Amino acid sequence: MPIRTPVPPASAAAEVGPAAVSSAPEDPSTLVELYERVSPGVVAIQTYLEDGVSRGSGWVFDSAGHIVTNQHVVADADEVEVDFSSGAKVWAEVIGSDNNSDLAVLRVDLPPEALAPLALGDSSGVQVGQTVVAIGNPFGLAGTMTVGIVSGL
Question: For residues 28 and 17, what is the distance between their CA atoms, to the nearest angstrom?
Fold first, then answer.
């Protein structure tokens, strides 16, 4: 599950999801700053299944060790490993999942100072055409970032 983080403007903006919404950034360093701020809260997930391994992304929800990911990433998992950008790798427990929303919550046992929770926001202000950023670990590639636009609500 890539983290869909809207790009912040040069000035402040309303929080939406793990970051802020705006039009395209005027300064490319804004994207670098956004990546550096958000990526410690984005994790890679490896799910060990009876017939192989699957991979996905997730994000740190709180300092108690809750991780949010997609349900399809952890479905039928025998074991789930969460890899942090710090280099930490820990086993996770699936504590809840919902097939209809394709969401799952994991829990890892790490001290709060080892976690970088991402803030939630209010998505009610999102508009078609706004710039968004996805930070994640697709297909086993660590720490990727891509830019796009909101194409529909």
Answer: 21
Tokens 């969401």, residue located: 103
Integer Cα distance of 123 and 116 in angstroms: 21
Distance between CA 102 and CA 7 in Å, rounded? 25
pLDDT of residue 140: 78
Q: Where are the beta strands (DSSP E) in 21-118?
A: 42-49, 52-60, 66-69, 79-83, 89-98, 103-108
Q: Taking the CA of residue 23 as centre, how many other CA atoms within 13 Å lie in the half-sphere pointing to its CB?
A: 1
Average pLDDT over residues 69-87: 95
Average pLDDT of the residues in 138-144: 85
pTM comes to 0.79
